[in-house]
Amino acid sequence: MELILWRHAEAEDGSDDLARALTPRGRRQAARMAQWLKSHAPGPWQVLVSPASRTVETASALHLPFFVRDELKPGAQAREVLAVAGWPDGQGTVVVVGHQPTLGEATALALTGMALPWSLRKGAMVWLTARDQEHLIPVQLRASLSPDLLTES
């Protein structure tokens, strides 16, 4: 299983947290990351998205179908995120578009077994691979990337 945990891109400030939209910079971040993901991550893909506007807008940059999951809303627990994704026993590539601090904690939990307070930058992603239990190390970090490191094309 391939698991990509993708934090939403830069969003506007606002008091209605679920309604916050991406900024122009955030839309560019999402487009750059989506392009990179589509050229590197294998299919088939299942894309799971928090109900917040900023995550829906980030996922839309992939131009793929996605499923909005309430379990991924702001304040979700790291274990819930991994469970919704089917980690580590799922098939194919699962992309979860969500929020901090949950995605950082889910990354730490998948890699170390503990939901540590790790941080992902806005628009950044972490790509993990679950390998067979026969491997000495059953989880592999494939990539960790911020959109600021990608150039616009």
Specify the helix fraction band: 25-40%
Spatial arrangement of strands, main beta sheet:
3-2-4-1-5-6
Number of strands: 6
Instruction: Give the CA-CA distance, first to last residue.
Output: 30 Å
Mean pLDDT: 94
Annotated CATH architecture: 3-Layer(aba) Sandwich
How do the helices and strands line up, and which of them pair or pack?
Layout: E1 2-7, H1 24-40, E2 45-49, H2 53-60, E3 67-68, H3 78-85, E4 93-98, H4 102-112, E5 125-130, E6 139-145
Parallel strand pairs: 1-4, 2-3, 2-4
Antiparallel strand pairs: 1-5, 5-6
Please outline what is shown here.
The protein is of the alpha/beta class and about 150 residues long. It has four helices and six strands; from the N terminus they run E-H-E-H-E-H-E-H-E-E.
Would you mind describing this structure in some detail?
This protein has 153 residues and is of the alpha/beta class. It has a single domain (2-15, 26-149), classed as Phosphoglycerate mutase-like (Rossmann fold, 3-Layer(aba) Sandwich), CATH 3.40.50.1240. It is built from four helices and six strands, in the order E-H-E-H-E-H-E-H-E-E. Strand 2, helix 2 and strand 3 (67-68) form a beta-alpha-beta unit. The protein starts with a strand and ends in an 8-residue tail after the last strand.
